[in-house]
Amino acid sequence: MLLNRKKYSEFGFIGDELFSDLEKDRMHKCMVAEQSIIDGDFTFDEAMQAYELNKDEYENYLAKKSNTNIFISLTGNTGSSIKINYPSSTYFEIFAKMILNSPAEQELGEFEIRKAKISEELFILSQDMKKAKEQV
């Protein structure tokens, strides 16, 4: 039986230690891809190809990062063991505002109408959640 030389090389060993979890590896790739896009080293498509990511993986990374940033902004908690306990109604309100304030792809077209409807529904949902919580 032959040894896997990569696994037992110093680089392979360090890599195994740092990224034993696939999710951590993916998050690291997304962070590096994001920075390379910001720095102008790559376009979005080039970064996805260079770091072997797909759009869905990258969007999930951005969503997780946004959730964490929203939580820290609302609670001021920067601890490493963040336990999300802020009211989900507040989260929906913020998300509704994010959608409403997103850049327009068309001026007053079908997209804008749909975006406004989604934002309105999320805001109504947040209000309903607040009312339900008050009744409990």
What does the model show?
This protein is mostly helical and 136 residues long. The longest helix has 26 residues.
As a whole number of angstroms, the C-alpha radius of gyration is 21 Å
Average pLDDT across residues? 76
Oligomer: single chain
Order of helices and strands: HHHHHHH
Give unreliable regions as ranges. 1-13
Number of helices: 7
Strand residue percentage: under 5%
Helix content: over 70%
Strand tally is 0
Distance between the termini: 65 Å
How does the major sheet shape up? none
* Structure class: mainly alpha
Global outline: extended
Count of distinct structural domains = 2
Please outline the helices and strands.
Blueprint: H1 5-8, H2 10-18, H3 22-38, H4 44-50, H5 55-75, H6 88-100, H7 110-135
Helix pairs in contact: 3-4, 6-7
What characteristics describe this protein?
136 residues, mainly alpha, 7 helices, 71% helix, disordered N terminus
Write a concise synopsis of the structure shown:
With about 140 residues, this protein is mostly helical. The protein is built from 7 helices and no strands. The chain folds into 2 domains: about 70 residues, no CATH class; about 50 residues, no CATH class.
